[in-house]
Please model this.
Amino acid sequence: MIPIEETAFEMLKQYIESLRRYFANEEGRDEIINDIESRIAELFSERLKKGAICITDEDVQAVMASMGRPEDFDAETGTAANGGTNTGTGPQQQSTSQQSQSTGGSYSAGPARGRLVRNADDKIIAGVCSGLANYFHIDPVIMRIVFVVLLFTGGSGLLVYLILWVAVPSQSIQSNITKRLYRSSEDKVLAGVCGGLAGYFNISTWVPRLIFALPLIIGLLSGPFNWWWGDMDFWIGPRIVTGSLGSTLFVTYIVLWIAVPIAVTAAEKLEMRGERVDLNSIRDTVKEDLEGFRSRAQNWGNDIKQSAQQLGTQAKQFTQSERVKTFTTEASTAARGAGSGIAHILGVLFKAFFLFIVGMIALALFGALVGLVFGGVPVMAFKEFLLEGFWQNSLAWLTVLLFLGVPIIALITWLIRRIMGVRSRNHYLGYIFGTLWFVGIASAALLTGSVFRSFKSRNFVEENIAMAQPANGKLYLDVASNSINYRYYSNDWFDWDSDWPLFGANLDSIMLNTVRIDVVKSNDNDFHVTKVKFSRGKDPVTARNLAEKINFSTSQVDSVLYLPKGFSISKGERWRAQQVLLILQVPLGKRFRLDRSISKYDWFDVRYNHRGGLDIEDNWERTYWVESGKEYIMTPDGPKQVSKLDVEALKRGEYKERDKDDDNEEANQERIERRKRNNEEPAVTDTTGGYRYRKQTPANKTDSTTPAKAKSATASANENDEGQSTTLFSSSFASNKVSTR
Amino acid sequence: MRKGILEFCILSIIRRGEAYPSDIVDEMRGANLQILEGTLYPLLTRLKNAEMLTYRWVESNSGPPRKYFSLTPKGEEFFKELETTWNELANAVNTLASKRESLVSSAGPGTITDINEFPTETTQPNN
Model:
């Protein structure tokens, strides 16, 4: 323990601090400071031995004088860059610096320390950033990045820059930075940004790489998880992190890529790592690069040997080092000049964009593959239903493997190679992967084409459902709540109820509920239900066969017609967009009601192209849409909800009648109905009273009889102007009509 | 200037025997070469990192332990190189400084023109 006065201690502390700052960039800084402190301690103990009670200010001052102050170091030693010396042979040639002697070269003593000047040597626009960086003893590149960021966030950077440009004088100062931020040219995966950063901060390379890659990885991982459990709030946290942080880091990476120059020469590489740029360290660096640069290293070696021999020479040493220094400055300026051109920025942006797109594509493929793998088990089952034949199956496998798998493997291989720094000479692997991937694309295209071909034709089968007329003139349609014939899985897992057309699945058949119920006015006084089954196939015959196979059987109990929840398709038939259309024909004045559960059916579009010659819509009069769960009564204007109608009027049965005076309305109605109605059926006399008989209109009148009128249909038969458009419907209707009697 | 020379001097001193920094400073001051201790320590550390020097700790009862430096074989080599360089430099300087004859100039006395121009018959000065 050394007793020391407080003021003396303060002075000492400041002195040590100044030494610390002075040696900030020195390699053995800590050791030097320790040595100096030990020496100071020694000096102090000597003093104490000589009789002093405690160390005073004068003692500290004396020690400081003996050891020397940082400013004196420069003056005394002079460095490689600076040729001046106090005790030497008078003022020497200066370097390009016009400052006083104290401008240190590699040490951090700046230009008349404390003065802010613009750097005339190292300038992109006006040397503002460089001068500022000099003042703060940091890398100009960092300063520039800061300015660019300020520029983009509000433009304040521009204003500050302009002010500084005008106000701060420009001077040619020597750069006093030993450690600049460069991008590494050897240690790079994409652009050496992480490598350069690692060198600047003296950390391992994988650390910045991990920091940049981490949001990406988390995003990747959380992606499939979000798909799995969409409601889990747990993942909101990482998503916030990855969302904003990921994009920030991404932008940062791009900015650094553009702004930070790449260290190419040995001098720059040394600067990147913060080592002193003198001939010895250059020699060492060059030795590191010896692998690819044998001959160049030899020349260097010769040069260095020569220069080492001239080491003591003032002039020679100065010129040599001056050359190195100016070369470094010039080269770095030139490199930065070339690097900061617009072309470079554009090039980088393009590269980044391209990489981004490629990354997205890779991610998408990866996601598809992962989805396929995870959903593999059910997909396997469905594969049977979709694909048919040997070719389709094998194509599918091929597609999955090549189109999806190959890029993944290639990407993984490339990543591993990059991370481990392995460089392979041959690019055969790349070509092989590329070829395989193209084959995968081809097979995917073939597969798609083949599958589409299986869906090309559409055909239907329709049959009439035998039914007994309900006793009280009201028909209910309900969905059978128990499907004893079918066993199916609960479909909650994949949330099929809302998303998928599927209804259930078991081992060798799946259930579809693409069922639709249309309501039309009956031609006669009876309820009729026609069932039309649709299917697709690779040709009409196949389609028709498949349609035939649809099993959708109804059963009637009193006035309730039970419909199954869906229809099943077996593996042998395959899924070919099978649909079932029920046409419910309701006579005028009768009521019907569709149970609520009918809404569970999956609606589909029946409108069909006219080219196929099947105009389902046109064959019937306009179909009506009814709400499920409500009771309707069929009026001449279509079904109307019973609850909305006047109760009294209902009772009186007014709605069965047609208002004779309301000709216009009728005309409208009839115009709608006129197409392709074949009313050859014999007139059915209805048993219910109150029907108005309408006089038969002359044949040339295009009004066809309204369907509510059950009468001799002879006149209406003539209404068919388009004779050939009598289609299967009408004929079967006619025939069936008779049979269901 | 003096950094290269200083290193030469330091190596010369240490070459003669184990020395610790304070000794080195004293020696130099004795030879009329003013140096600050603060200059010495960085140089020593650098030389040590470049494996020219090695040191060992010696306990002392009058304060903290001291580092005693000695020369390594590599340092010995380096010293020889520096010595050669120094000698060359010294010789060159001495030669130039001791020359007495006047420089030959193509123009007349008092005017200095193109130094590279060789003197010809017609322009020989008549001194």
Remarks:
- The interface with chain B takes residues 19, 23, 26-28, 31-32, 35-36, 38-39, 41-42, 45-46, 49, 66-70, 72-73, 76-80, 83, 85, 87-88, 92, 280, 308-314, 317 of chain A (CB under 8 Å).
